[in-house]
Amino acid sequence: MDYEGLIIRPPSEAYSLLLQVTVGCSHNKCTFCGTYRQKKFKIKPLEQIKKDLQEARNFGNVKKVFLCDGDALIIPQPRLEEILKLINNNLPNIERIGTYANAKSILRKPIDELKKLKEMGLKIIYLGVETGNVELLQKIHKGVTYEQMVAAARRVKEAGIALSVTVLLGIGGIEKSVEHALDTARILSDIDPDYVGALTLMLVPHTQLYEDYMAGCFILPDKFGYIRELYLIISNSNFTNCYFTSNHVSNYLPIKAYLPREKEKILKMIGSVIEEKNVSRMRPEYLRGL
User: Fold this and answer.
1) Where are the domains of the chain?
2) Which of 128, 209, 143 is nearest to 176 (CA)?
3) Residues 224, 277: contact at Cβ < 8 Å?
4) Which of 21, 55, 138, 181 has the CA that lies 20 to 30 A from 281?
């Protein structure tokens, strides 16, 4: 397989074939993210994608494919449909195709185009929401408004594609911790996604947020501050049927819960950790990472 630069994927795509169809991120301006800083965004040549899929035919029974890098939905619809067709032709046992997407690229796709992608196997989209706080969305340079984020998420759901959103504990620092948590609960309730993954902020050198931290302009919560945000987000969110996790390696307190069914139980557990300051329940610092 031909990979350019660092390749990342969601935890739930651990056993998927990683097919790089773009290099980098079409936005690449978020102040906290250093993943694609060294990559100039481009769409990979179709011939290279064909070669990768021909190689993948030798990998055995491939059932899931994840399209890398940061935003495959930015690819023009005819090319994207061609890529999905190639996947289906080369991997006959494929059950699911997934991709990261940003709100702007989703909103560029009419609903009928998203439905067509669903028919061709695109069954899950991962959307980085990060926060529901209007001020923070601007400050971290997400490039979209609260309303655009909600509209994009709802469009994915309307197309019948599963939606997994990511939120970022700590992105508001100590100063905006409570506002961030409450507003994030609000946007999650407005979106009502199928999955939520709560990650914990890890400062990356050479990013703007890291520079702000080093200059003393941004102060991180302590480990229990992150967990209080997690508690506030879950307690103030209203879901129809959502699988909520904080099992990413960045998190201090790994949890998995079906909401709203297990809401009371999981809040009781998180609350006890906070009240008792029980560090034995928490992931040690040396085991955390990006």
Assistant:
1) 11-287
2) 209
3) yes
4) 181
Q: Which two tokens stand for residue 179?
A: 């506002």
Residues in the chain: 290
Q: Tell me what percent of the residues of the chain surpass a pLDDT of 70.
A: 100
Residue 64 pairs in a beta bridge with 96
Cβ 192 vs Cβ 239: under 8 Å: yes
**Per the structure block, which two tokens stand in for 176?**
């905006």
Query: Concatenated DSSP letters for 256-281?
Result: EEEETTTHHHHHHHHHHHHHHT-GGG
Q: pTM higher than 0.90 for the full model?
A: yes
With beta carbons less than 8 A apart as the criterion, state whether 278 and 253 touch.
no
Residues 85-108 have pLDDT tens digits of 999 999 999 999 999 999 999 999
Contact between residue 289 and residue 252 where contact means Cβ atoms under 8 Å apart: no
Q: Using 50, 70 and 90 to split pLDDT, how confident is the model at 248?
A: confident
Amino acid at 260: P
Which residue spans within the chain are E strands per DSSP?
Answer: 17-20, 22-23, 42-43, 64-68, 96-101, 122-130, 162-169, 195-200, 242-245, 256-259
| DSSP E strands, 184-251 | 195-200, 242-245
Strands of 27-119, DSSP E = 42-43, 64-68, 96-101
Beta-carbon contacts of residue 196 (< 8 Å; ≥ 6 apart): 164, 165, 166, 167, 188, 242, 243, 244, 245
**Domain 11-287, what architecture?**
Alpha-Beta Barrel (3.20)
Report the distance separating Cα 249 and Cα 252, nearest Å.
8
Give the helix/strand (H/E) hosting 16.
none
